């Protein structure tokens, strides 16, 4: 894969949408190797400084009616979306070190909506998320998300495919599939910009059949605020997009979402965002810098604006690239 490596980090609907920001967001970010001129999925700042890998997964629904809520399961569409979002893997920044030292990975920086960075050929990710009860569910539950990519986002584009088991309590009883086409459109100095279009819930089974699917579009920028700092280059991520399905409210056909995140310490990232239906706050932590495993804690819909209400989530995501180095 040339000299670019990818690691995949960042959902009830929320499990997955939340995790993508960490599992995105390891939802998938490309790692840009030190000598590379273009970053793939996880677009990072200058090629000399790091490798990016969007790790970190996320719709224009033409349905003009409110999102339906399943009566057959304890998990509602709102909850499923939360779980799915949480399971998204965010981009991991891979920083090259001198000599034989191992590369290090930064925390996820996407806490709402989707990231335009995604998985490339060889990238694989998996995430596990647990969430507290909300307005529509009185028990703790969670979700599992796995995905992979094909293609090269720094050249012609790449396709990321993801699958989510949307309830751990009722394991295997429901699930859904998503896809995202993403492309790195700008890679100069310490800045990377990517664009993506995706379709969430393009296929479903079980109780997820009542969850509105939808397409979306998103733009994400990734920059190093302190590129010359050897300890913390302070990566900063900003995403903005629009789509249907889980990003809209009530009878609206579309909704907007956005997210802002910053690495405040080498192993800690914090951020906030609007998911389309609620305001999120979160923090992401990398326990061992040389291992692409990310732990993300998040408060979803703290404004208590969505049918599912405010919930707290905790996700663990891991991503890797199986191609030869």
Quick structural gist:
The protein is mainly beta and 325 residues long. It has helices at 13-19, 77-86, and strands at 5-6, 28-31, 50-55, 92-95, 123-131, 141-152, 157-165, 175-188, 191-205, 214-224, 235-243, 255-265, 268-274, 279-285, 293-300, 311-321.
Describe, in plain words, how this protein is organized in 3D:
- This protein is mainly beta and 325 residues long.
- The protein has one domain: monomeric porin ompg (Porin), CATH 2.40.160.40.
- The chain contains 2 helices and 16 strands.
- It has helices at residues 13-19, 77-86; strands at 5-6, 28-31, 50-55, 92-95, 123-131, 141-152, 157-165, 175-188, 191-205, 214-224, 235-243, 255-265, 268-274, 279-285, 293-300, 311-321.
- The strands form 2 sheets. A 12-stranded antiparallel beta barrel has the order 5-6-7-8-9-10-11-12-13-14-15-16. Strands 1-2-3-4 form a 4-stranded antiparallel sheet, with no helix packed on it.
- A hairpin with a 2-residue loop joins strand 8 (175-188) and strand 9 (191-205).
- The radius of gyration is 17 Å and the shape is globular.
């Amino acid at each position: 894969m040339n000299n670019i490596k990818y690691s995949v980090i960042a959902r009830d609907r929320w499990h997955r949408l939340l995790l993508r920001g960490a599992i995105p967001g390891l939802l998938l970010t490309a790692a840009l190797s030190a000598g590379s001129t273009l970053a793939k999925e996880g677009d990072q700042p200058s090629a000399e400084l790091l490798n990016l890998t969007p790790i970190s997964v996320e719709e224009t629904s033409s349905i003009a009616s409110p999102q339906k809520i399943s009566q057959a399961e304890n998990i509602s569409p709102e909850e499923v979306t939360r779980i799915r979002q949480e399971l998204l893997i965010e981009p991991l920044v891979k920083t090259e070190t001198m000599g034989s030292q191992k590369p290090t990975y930064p925390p996820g920086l996407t806490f709402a909506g989707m990231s335009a960075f995604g998985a490339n050929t060889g990238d694989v990710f998996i995430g596990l998320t647990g969430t507290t009860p909300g307005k529509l569910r009185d028990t703790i539950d969670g979700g599992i998300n796995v995905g992979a990519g094909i293609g090269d986002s720094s050249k012609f584009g790449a396709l990321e495919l993801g699958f989510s088991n949307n309830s751990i309590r009722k394991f295997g009883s429901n699930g859904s599939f998503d896809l995202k086409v993403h492309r790195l459109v700008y890679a100069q100095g310490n800045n990377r910009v990517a664009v993506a279009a995706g379709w969430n819930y393009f296929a479903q089974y079980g109780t997820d059949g009542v969850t509105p699917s939808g397409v979306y579009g998103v733009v994400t920028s990734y920059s190093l605020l302190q590129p010359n700092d050897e300890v913390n280059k302070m990566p900063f991520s900003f995403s903005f997009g629009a789509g249907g399905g889980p990003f809209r409210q009530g009878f609206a056909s579309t909704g907007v979402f956005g997210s802002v995140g910053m690495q405040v310490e080498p192993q800690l990232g914090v951020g906030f965002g609007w998911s389309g239906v609620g305001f999120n706050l979160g923090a992401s932590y990398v326990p061992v810098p040389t291992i692409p495993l990310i732990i993300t804690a998040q408060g979803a819909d703290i404004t208590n604006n969505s049918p599912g209400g405010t919930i707290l989530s905790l996700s663990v995501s891991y991503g890797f690239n199986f191609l030869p180095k």
